[in-house]
Task: inverse folding
C-alpha cells in the first residue's frame, strides 16, 4: 500500500493535523477533506505536492465521492467533542453510516477509526457509548475497519493533557469527584500516531479492534502526582467526594482550565469508566517502544516550553464565516497609525497578539474581561495560542478565533466570548513607501437592547484598550531586532 493515496478526514483536528506528515514520511500520498481549505494553510505539509485538499464536509455526498475517489484507505477521525445529547449522537451515527457506504462504493481496501478505550457492557458514559456506536456504523459497511481504542492521550495541546496540567498547576488543594481513583492506561500522542500509520502496513489489523495504551496503568490521582513532580510542584492535596456529578465536574473543569464546559462534560463523564487495555494485541502486531506516563508528560511539557505545539485541541471545529452585517446597526471603532517599519515587521507584531504576549496594552482589563467571560461560560483567556509567534487560519487566540489571514496584509478575528451580539477585530497593513500604516477596526452588531447597552458600557474603555493596543503594536514593530 506504500505510495498509495490515503484520505484523512479531520485533518484540521488535533490527531489529524499530526497524522498527515507522518503518513508522508511513511511514503503515502494524502488527500484531506476539510470544510475550509484555508484552515490547513498554516501547516507546512499543506504545500507538499503529495498532499491534496478537497473542500467539503463529511455530510456532503458529492464531497465524499470526490474525496474517496482513487483512495486505497481512509482515516475517519470525525467525532463531536460536545456529543452530549441525542441530537449530537444521532448526527455522529448518520455521518459514520454515510461514510461507510461511500467508502464501499469507492472500493477502498480499509477504513481506520480512532475510538475511545473503556470497559464494555452497560454503564458506559454517553460519550464513550457514542464512540462505540460510530464504530458499529462504520463496521456496518462492506469495507474492513481497523478500530484503535485509546484512553487519555498525552501530548502538548491535547484536551486531556491541558485539563491535567491546569488542574495541577492552579490547585494545590483539590476537591474532586471520586473518579480520581479510577484506573487509566494513558498513551503518548507519538505512540498513537505510530499505531495509526503502522496498521496500514500490517494485514492482520484489517477488520480488528485493537486497544492501544502505554506501559503504565495508573489512577488519575497518581497521574496528577506525576504531573506535579514534572512541574517541580509540591504534591497536590486531593479530597475525593461522592457528590460531584459530571455536570458539576464539567463546570469545575471549565472554571479552572481552558476547556469549555461543553467539551469538559463528555470528558468528565468518561472518567468514571475504567479505561485499560484488555490485551497486548496491538503491540504484538505492531511492535515498538512506548513512552511511560512520566516520559510522555515530560515530552509534552518540553514542547510547550519550546513553543513547538504542532496541533492543539482548540483548533478543531467549524469556523463560521464573517457575520452577516446587513439589516442592523453596526458599531465601528476604526483607528490607524503610521509605523516606521516594513509591512512584514508590522504584521509580525500584529500576529503575536494574545496568549503569553498579551494584547500590548491594558492587560489588566483584558484579564478582567477574560475572567468575567469564564464565569458566564465563555472560553476566557485560558486557551492562549498554539505558537507564540505564528498564527494560522482557524486557530484560537484567547477568546478570539482567526477567520481571515493574508500574510503581511490582514488578520481578522471573530469573538467567541459570551456577548449580546457579534464582534470582529481586524488588522490591515497598508504599505506607505518603505514603511507601513496599520488600520485597526473593531465592529459590533448588537443583539437587542442588551447588545446596545453592552456597546455603550464598554465604549469609554476603547480609548484605553484599542488605542493602547495600536500604539503597542507600533512600538513593537519599530523596536530594532536584537543583534
Result:
Amino acid at each position: 500500500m506504500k505510495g498509495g493515496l490515503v484520505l484523512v478526514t479531520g485533518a484540521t483536528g488535533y490527531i489529524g493535523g499530526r497524522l498527515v506528515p507522518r503518513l508522508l514520511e511513511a511514503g503515502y500520498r494524502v488527500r484531506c477533506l476539510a470544510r475550509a481549505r484555508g484552515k490547513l494553510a498554516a501547516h507546512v505539509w499543506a504545500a507538499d505536492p503529495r498532499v491534496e485538499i478537497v473542500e467539503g464536509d463529511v455530510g456532503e455526498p458529492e464531497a465524499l465521492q470526490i474525496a474517496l475517489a482513487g483512495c486505497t484507505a481512509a482515516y475517519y477521525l470525525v467525532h463531536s467533542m460536545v456529543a452530549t445529547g441525542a441530537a449530537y449522537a444521532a448526527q455522529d451515527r448518520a455521518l459514520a453510516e454515510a461514510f461507510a457506504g461511500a467508502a464501499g462504493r469507492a472500493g477502498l481496501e480499509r477504513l481506520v477509526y480512532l475510538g475511545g478505550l473503556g470497559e464494555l457492557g452497560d454503564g458506559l458514559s454517553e460519550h464513550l457509548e457514542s464512540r462505540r456506536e460510530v464504530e458499529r456504523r462504520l463496521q456496518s459497511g462492506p469495507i474492513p475497519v481497523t478500530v484503535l481504542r485509546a484512553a487519555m492521550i498525552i501530548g502538548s495541546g491535547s484536551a486531556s493533557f491541558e485539563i491535567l496540567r491546569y488542574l495541577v498547576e492552579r490547585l494545590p488543594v483539590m476537591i474532586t469527584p471520586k473518579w480520581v481513583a479510577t484506573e487509566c492506561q494513558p498513551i503518548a500522542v507519538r505512540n498513537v500516531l505510530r499505531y495509526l500509520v503502522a496498521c496500514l502496513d500490517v494485514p492482520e489489523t484489517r477488520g480488528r479492534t485493537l486497544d492501544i495504551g502505554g506501559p503504565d496503568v495508573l489512577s488519575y490521582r497518581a497521574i496528577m502526582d506525576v504531573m506535579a513532580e514534572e512541574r517541580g510542584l509540591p504534591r497536590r492535596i486531593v479530597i475525593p467526594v461522592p457528590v460531584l456529578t459530571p455536570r458539576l465536574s464539567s463546570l469545575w473543569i471549565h472554571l479552572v482550565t481552558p476547556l469549555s464546559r461543553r467539551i469538559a462534560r463528555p470528558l468528565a463523564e468518561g472518567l468514571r469508566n475504567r479505561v485499560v487495555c484488555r490485551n497486548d494485541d496491538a503491540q504484538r502486531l505492531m511492535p515498538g517502544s512506548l513512552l511511560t506516563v512520566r516520559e510522555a508528560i515530560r515530552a509534552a511539557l518540553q514542547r510547550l516550553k519550546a513553543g513547538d505545539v504542532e496541533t492543539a485541541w482548540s483548533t478543531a471545529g467549524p469556523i463560521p464565516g464573517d457575520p452577516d452585517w446587513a439589516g442592523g446597526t453596526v458599531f465601528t471603532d476604526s483607528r490607524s497609525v503610521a509605523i516606521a517599519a516594513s509591512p512584514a515587521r508590522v504584521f509580525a507584531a500584529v500576529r503575536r497578539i494574545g496568549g503569553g504576549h498579551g494584547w500590548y496594552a491594558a492587560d489588566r482589563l483584558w484579564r478582567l474581561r477574560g475572567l468575567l467571560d469564564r464565569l458566564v461560560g465563555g472560553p476566557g483567556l485560558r486557551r492562549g495560542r498554539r505558537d507564540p509567534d505564528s498564527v494560522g487560519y482557524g486557530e484560537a487566540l484567547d477568546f478570539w478565533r482567526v477567520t481571515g489571514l493574508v500574510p503581511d496584509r490582514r488578520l481578522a478575528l471573530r469573538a467567541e466570548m459570551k456577548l449580546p451580539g457579534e464582534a470582529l477585530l481586524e488588522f490591515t497593513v497598508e504599505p506607505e513607501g518603505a514603511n507601513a500604516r496599520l488600520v485597526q477596526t473593531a465592529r459590533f452588531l448588537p443583539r437587542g437592547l442588551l447588545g446596545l447597552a453592552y456597546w455603550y458600557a464598554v465604549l469609554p474603555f476603547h480609548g484605553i484598550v484599542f488605542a493602547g493596543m495600536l500604539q503597542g503594536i507600533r512600538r513593537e514593530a519599530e523596536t530594532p531586532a536584537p543583534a
Notes: The first strand starts at residue 5 and ends at 9.
